[in-house]
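Appendix C reproduces, verbatim, an entry submitted by the partner laboratory led by Prof. M.T., so that reviewers can inspect both the input and the predicted structure.
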Amino acid sequence: MGNPETFYKEALAWLEANCPQSQRTPASREELVYGGNKCVFPSDDAKTWLELMAARGWTVPTWPKEYGGAGLSSEEAGLLQKAMRKLGCRSPLIGHGLWMLGPALLEYGTREQKLQHLPGIARGEIRWCQGYSEPGAGSDLASLRCRCEDKGDHFLVNGQKSWTTDGNHADWIFVLVRTDFDNPAKQAGISFLLIDLESAGVEVKPCTLLDGNEDFCDTFFDNVVVPRENLVGDINEGWAIAKSLLVHERTMMSQIQEYIPRLPHSVVEYARNYVGLDENGQLADDALRGQLTSHLMNAHAMQLAQQRAFEERRAGVLDKRSTLYFKAWATEEDQRKDELLLAMLGSAALGWEGDGFSDDELQVTRQFLTNKALTIGGGTTEVQLNLMARALGLPGREV
């Protein structure tokens, strides 16, 4: 790359000149942009912001230019993010295509697959969802049974996937399927397919969750014909791709708070407003004060650890084992923060709807319920602990 300081200044100047003012505030849940054929933009500014960033390749800055990216180095992409944070610029586009499938295709896809799918992801034209978990294969993903028969020029898929996030809003799904039922090794005989959700025989059914939203779906495949060119990698060799993609998913999960709409106040502000201060200017509840201090220390330590990993990666000396704890730590801490907020708000956190509660209070309650899924999605905390144990040469535990 050229001079980092020059790149940063130029990026900051471009963002200042092009990012609409309405896109420089935290996005609410309804204002997040996932793209896709079913996308309804929350505003004209959001649409313009996506188009401008996509044209520059900055929705996926490190991807090669021929695939819709900008060809930036990791350091340049980090400086771009720094400039965006300085101005408060929203992410113009988010989703599984950017976070997971794109990186997997860059590593394992053919050139034809990359040209077919990556530019559409980068421009927000196609929205993807993930088909991994099944009713009998969640954390033990290798036990999946979704059946895929090789018919020569195509595959025939039958089975079910569960917890398909945003499947009812997506255009395509990337799926793990069983192509060899005779191999005794669970990880063997699994393949990685790309399926158009408009294909005959696909049915997506939303599920109502604790927070009242329908973010997850059950996805059913009934004799779905999938062209052979939609196989990523070799047949029966999909487990390696699955593991690589899960690394990207866990990285995303460790940074999930960057994409979840923020509460209107900080934890400290909620403490002041709902618990109050004593005559010494300290939080009036000793126990809550200790819990708040612990949370703030943990959150700051997590930020420092992530920054260290970023610097070590940039220097080429990163031990990948050191990042295994990020997902488990970050999601567990998010849930501890939610529990702390509920304790601070007291009865004000018991609302579901109605005039008796403010919008802020209702958002705290809904976030508490939403975030219960964080320690399950992307691999449960128990699975993450096993991964950490094995990386350290320690015995794992059956879960």
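The CA atoms of residues 256 and 331 lie 8 Å apart. Additional entries are available on request from the coordinating office.
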